[in-house]
Design goal:
The structure is a single chain. With about 425 residues, the chain is of the alpha+beta class. It folds into two domains: about 240 residues, no CATH class; about 150 residues, no CATH class. About 30% of the residues lie in helices and about 20% in strands. The strands form five sheets. A five-stranded antiparallel β-sheet has the order 2-1-15-14-13, with helices on both faces.
Length: about 425
């Protein structure tokens, strides 16, 4: 952890491209397009990029003589209005907004921290209660523990609890406040959440003690009665058919009531966490240094390095939820490599939003990608080419960009 901290502490007062949600457009002589054309393993997907809904955003990081990073972004088919289902990739902005809310509350509630124990109750159909969390060192739930589980192994229940804590209205207000205009959060994950249940948030109490005797903050049940934010996107109906339970319907699946995002929005959040000084003051995340250190730690930690929660290496290998550069069969990360990322996988979509670094090789870059692998055009049939097409493609894409970065000798800016 000390080396990790020193790496980010060297950044200082950053300059370079303005860090905006609408990241830099592709530049002349785009190396990403050249790399995609030249690699035979990537070619089958690249040739069918439209069918695979392929989008890639690659950001080079060049440090000047003072160690300050400068950014230059390249893209392939980055189309914020072309829909992809974000799945778990939207957990990262949710994590930020949950920490921002707790940080704001703690300003007037002494003793309130991310580790403070939670009790969650239920007040609407389909809601569930939480009194204990056996994965934590204290046996109680907390914001910090939900964040650990969400970042380490992409736990869906952990995301759902953050959705309930912040609430749908504040979540979407926060996204707009940060300029993430292509991102909308409007349901929990893996519980069939939809209106009206998605509008209702559970009552939550946060305590000063693990015996749950001294409440610090009480949040009553709430309901969002407004209009869901709209995002102008095309082709929100995907596929030729889909299953609804055991029934096959010969029509596309409508995603208009589901979560949405874009690659520039996702990469902006990651950059804002890793390089906060590069964000204009008016757009910076409302987090303190402890919050950003926490997020960085668990974005890059491999599951078996965690003690609470504890994960079996057999079920959660080092490359679990690391699609770019390391995806595929269970195994270790490449030697010397750290990957800070958040993935998504559902409905045939694979997404990875990553910062990849190897200090010994002087390599660091941001790479975000989405690929759709559903050759039969049927959704909800669990017949997607994740293992045969999607993961091999993302693994190889990470390798190709990593090797290019390893050989790239950037001119240091003055």
């Amino acid at each position: 952890m000390e080396v990790f901290s020193q790496f980010f502490c060297r950044i200082g007062c950053l300059s370079g491209l303005a860090l905006l949600p609408a990241l830099a457009q592709a530049q002349p002589g785009n190396p990403l397009r050249r790399l995609l054309r030249q690699d035979a393993a990537l070619a089958p997907v690249v040739r069918q990029a439209k069918a695979h809904r392929l989008q890639i955003l690659y950001t080079q990081i060049t440090r000047d003589a003072q160690g300050q990073p400068h950014f230059r972004s390249y893209q392939f088919r980055v189309r914020p209005r072309e829909y992809f289902y974000p799945a778990s990739s939207i957990k990262l902005p949710t994590a930020v907004l949950a920490l921002e809310k707790l940080r704001a509350l703690s300003a007037s509630i002494p003793g309130l921290t991310p580790e403070s124990p939670w009790r969650i109750d239920s007040a609407f159909a389909g809601q569930t209660r939480v009194l204990h969390d056996t994965s934590s060192a204290t046996g109680r739930a907390s914001l910090a523990q939900y964040l650990r589980k969400m970042l380490l192994v992409s736990d869906n229940d952990a995301y759902n609890r953050l959705y309930e804590f912040v609430g749908p209205a504040a979540l979407n207000e926060g996204l707009q406040r940060h300029g993430l205009h292509h991102t909308v959060l409007r349901h929990r994950l893996s519980v069939g959440d939809q209106d009206p249940g998605a509008r209702h948030a559970n009552p939550i109490t946060i305590y000063a003690d693990t015996a749950l005797q001294r409440p610090l903050y009480g949040q009553p049940a709430a309901v969002f009665a407004g209009e869901w934010p709209g995002v102008r996107q095309r082709r929100l109906r995907i596929g030729q058919a889909h299953f609804q339970g055991n029934q096959r319907l010969e029509e596309p699946l409508d995603f208009s009531t589901k979560n949405t995002t874009s690659l520039p929005d996702l990469q902006w959040v990651l950059r804002a966490i890793l390089f906060p000084e590069a964000v204009p003051a008016s757009q910076q995340l409302a987090l303190d240094s402890a919050d950003t250190r926490f997020l960085r730690r668990y974005l890059s930690m491999v599951p078996q390095a965690s003690q609470h929660p504890r994960y079996s290496p057999a079920a959660y290998p080092d490359n679990y939820a690391k699609f770019l550069l390391a995806g595929g069969a269970a195994g270790p990360l490449p030697a010397g490599v750290q990957i800070f990322n958040k993935i998504g996988q559902a409905y045939g979509f694979l997404i990875d939003n990553a910062y990849i670094r190897n200090p010994e090789q002087n390599v660091e870059f941001l790479l975000s990608a989405v690929v759709y692998v559903n050759s039969d055009g049927v959704l909800n049939d669990d017949k997607y080419e994740y293992d045969t097409v999607g993961l091999p493609f993302l693994h190889r894409l990470g390798e190709v960009v990593y090797e290019y970065e390893r050989k790239r000798k950037p001119q240091k800016r003055r």
